[in-house]
């Protein structure tokens, strides 16, 4: 059975809105049911078969405070997602920082250390270049949706 989650890691709300926008589109255009969760625990999503993570970067290349426990739990778990088939990682950050999109890059490393690779390299959104990060996230998701749902 498909268990599809769209989750966000956010401090100021941008990544949350992007996640909500993707979930709405998934239901309308792809007729799929996704569960939307902001900074969930690992227990809440460990049965995922399909997972989209949208995470912004704060501090100096760090995870949002509320998302850090999930990253740590994935890191500590031997097999965090036993049923995972498809993973898509979307980062939101600002190229004004040396640590541009550091959080999603770090998350990709954590997944890789568990033998889990996303369907493509993390997709990076630069808020310096887009005024509507949620719509950019949506178009990036849509561009990879066929492969994600295949
Ligand atoms: C205090 C602060 C620190 C930030 N640090 C980084 C950073 O290290 N790397 C980066 O790419 N973006 C950084 N950003 C930019 C945020 O990732 C960007 O504003 C993003 O849209 C925030 O997303 P959110 O609303 O989901 O929290 C920082 C922003 C703030 C306010």
From TrEMBL:
Keyword Disulfide bond attached: no
Q: Quote the InterPro entries the UniProt record gives.
A: Flavodoxin/NO_synth (IPR008254), Flavoprotein-like_sf (IPR029039)
Q: Which GO terms describe its molecular function?
A: FMN binding
Give the UniProt keywords, A-Z: Flavoprotein, FMN
Keyword field contains Membrane:
no
Q: Which residues form the Flavodoxin-like domain?
A: 4-149
Checking PROSITE patterns in the record gives: FLAVODOXIN_LIKE
How is this protein named in the record? Flavodoxin-like domain-containing protein
